[in-house]
Amino acid sequence: MISKDLLKLPGADLRRSITIGVLQAVGALAEIFMILLAIFGLGQLFGLAAPIWVAVFVTDPLTAIIWLLALAAIKCLCVMVANQTALTLSGRMSEALSQDLYLSLFDPTQAASAQGDEGRKPNQSLAMLSTEGVKSVCSYFSTFLPALVQSLLMIVVAALVLLPLNWAAGLIVILGMLALPFAANMTRSKEVATQVEHMKKYDHVGVRFEEALRGLNTLKIFHADEREAQQLSEDSEGFRKTTMALLAGQLRSLIGSDGVIYIAVILATVATIFLQRHNPMGMMTAVVVAVASVRLFTPERQLVYLTHAGTVAIKQGKAIAQARSLRTTTSTTTASNATEGSAAPASAPDAVPSPAASAAPNAHLFSGISAEHLSFAYPNGFQALSDLSFNLPPTGHFALVGASGSGKSTLASLLAGRLTPYEGSVTVDGAELASLPPERFIDLETVVTGNDHLFTGTVRTNLDPAGLGYSDEALTQVLLQTDLLDLIAGRGGLDSPIEQAGANLSGGQRQRLSIARGLLRHSPVYIFDEATSAVDREHDQTLASLMDQLGRQSLVITITHRLAGVRQADRIFMLDSGRIVESGNFDQLASQGGLFAQQWHEQDRLENLTAEGQQPSPSCLSRFPRRPPSAPHPSQHQPPSLPTLSKLPAPSPP
Ligand SMILES: Nc1ncnc2c1ncn2[C@@H]1O[C@H](COP(=O)(O)OP(=O)(O)OP(=O)(O)O)[C@@H](O)[C@H]1O
């Protein structure tokens, strides 16, 4: 029941768990003394004798009341300190574990590894662990282990309290306490198997439900929703059955342990009555034995109840430990590959930034990003990037543009350390990208995408999800920069609610809030991957100049389809089929007559049409028609005229 793997997890603090258990045991001891004093004190009122070591505390009613109050105060104090310690322990552990799992989620090698249990994608397994898993591991340390410690200490308490009252009763209760785990665990192996089955089904149903919900539109379009609903209801029925089996198992354990408790309490009471039948204190002692024994068994009974949760916690804790070790191994391997292998040359251990730099990334120290003959192919062999060379200085606004599928997001993901292995070399702040640990990317880069998650909570909790405690002034500043201040002020300010996934905001407002959140990080690099795709034109302009401004102190890389948004960018890279085909500032590219110029003129024309109230749909304005892969590069021949809306063929009927 004590797992070494769990003890090594970040935030795990066995000492605190033991402290909680000890405090609870001291509280229980105080409570049992209260029972003793109350019963014998009451007996004395009716002229019944009390043992000499109890009688001194209940010489008169006032003394008895004072002692009872003192014991109640000790009990309350113990409970309060134990609760506070448990809260601190689970808070710290939850933060440390979540952060650690976040690094695993971020780890490209792990995300690309084989499928998890039950066909789950590795990231889905990690996401489950970071919610359910973290919760249950935290309660293992803050509830289960303390209950275990308290149960063990209660044997000592039983010896201290009951043996002096009646040796036989004390012995029976202690034997009962030792026998209880065996009675509760009689069907243990079967129940562990049920537990494991239950967890698998739980994960499976959860993931399937989530997938179905995300893909509901697609399921409907393909008339697959009914079949999926059928499958979900079958899976849910299976889950319900294992849940019932699990509850039945828990009930069996509790019945087994209750049986032992009843037998022990009855035997102890009867033994006291029998052995002290000639003693004037006999009856009162028997009452005390009965009541105190029930209290002595309480922690152990609670432990039986918690055993199931403890089993789950151990399994999930082991999975978390495994995810961590996988990350440690892969990042070490990647780093050594990058140092030794040809795929990622140029990296030497001393090229990795110093810990001081990691702890306090500073735009002035940051030396930029550069790539030499960088190529990347996805695991299925698709060559998404080919032979890219560029040099991005520590500050400036750079834009990646190009048709859909040209490789912009792939390049952004690669620069954010999410895609490996690559060929050629790419250095971030002087160190080969493949050798950088995930933590370093988090320090250096802020990646904001168009569909970043917003949490159920408030504006403040969304801007500061890690609870770093930014000042109201800092939060207000970023809301102002993203043109959200009036809106948020009108809704009640920083503590106004944000519904699930930002449902009470428009798409553009959600994106602006995500950008505001990113701005708070003050990182040396910002990557905005279609971060403003749903933002209206008016705000798009504000954000474009915000990014230009941000580029004066950081390295800003924006990926966008809307070329008007990068007019002031220091350099624009035009990608086509994974290659940089044009680069320069806006005016240079627009006057070059190449692919960029073509797309700019087309967009400009469509935007003007819309501005004049003519037909083309707004969605069309932000998307380029994609050049067929077989078509030659536009720089090699006269630019073909791109199809306008009126020239596009009408969609054929299904
Ligand atoms: N996981 C993957 N496995 C295989 N191929 C992929 C994968 N992800 C993307 N691709 C392919 O890589 C190419 C580049 O994709 P990428 O997402 O980088 O394009 P993009 O320029 O960002 O497109 P968009 O503007 O539509 O977002 C595309 O042809 C895409 O189909």
TrEMBL record:
Residue ranges with Polar residues bias: 611-620
Query: Residue ranges of the ABC transmembrane type-1 domain?
Result: 35-299
Q: How does it sit in the membrane?
A: Multi-pass membrane protein
What keywords are annotated for this sequence in UniProt? ATP-binding, Membrane, Nucleotide-binding, Transmembrane, Transmembrane helix
Compartment(s) of residence: Cell membrane
Which PROSITE patterns does the annotation name? ABC_TM1F, ABC_TRANSPORTER_1, ABC_TRANSPORTER_2
Task: Give coiled-coil spans as residue ranges.
Answer: none
Under InterPro entries, the record lists: AAA+_ATPase, ABC1_TM_dom, ABC1_TM_sf, ABC_transporter-like_ATP-bd, ABC_transporter-like_CS, P-loop_NTPase, Type_1_exporter
Residues covered by region (Disordered): 325-355, 610-654
Source domain of life: Bacteria
ABC transporter domain: residues covered = 369-602
Where is this chain compositionally biased, Low complexity type? Answer: 633-646
Looking at the UniProt entry, the stretches that span the membrane are 21-42, 62-83, 137-161, 167-184, 254-275
Which coarse location class describes where this protein primarily resides?
A: membrane
Record's protein name: ABC transporter
Q: Which organism is it from?
A: Bombiscardovia nodaiensis
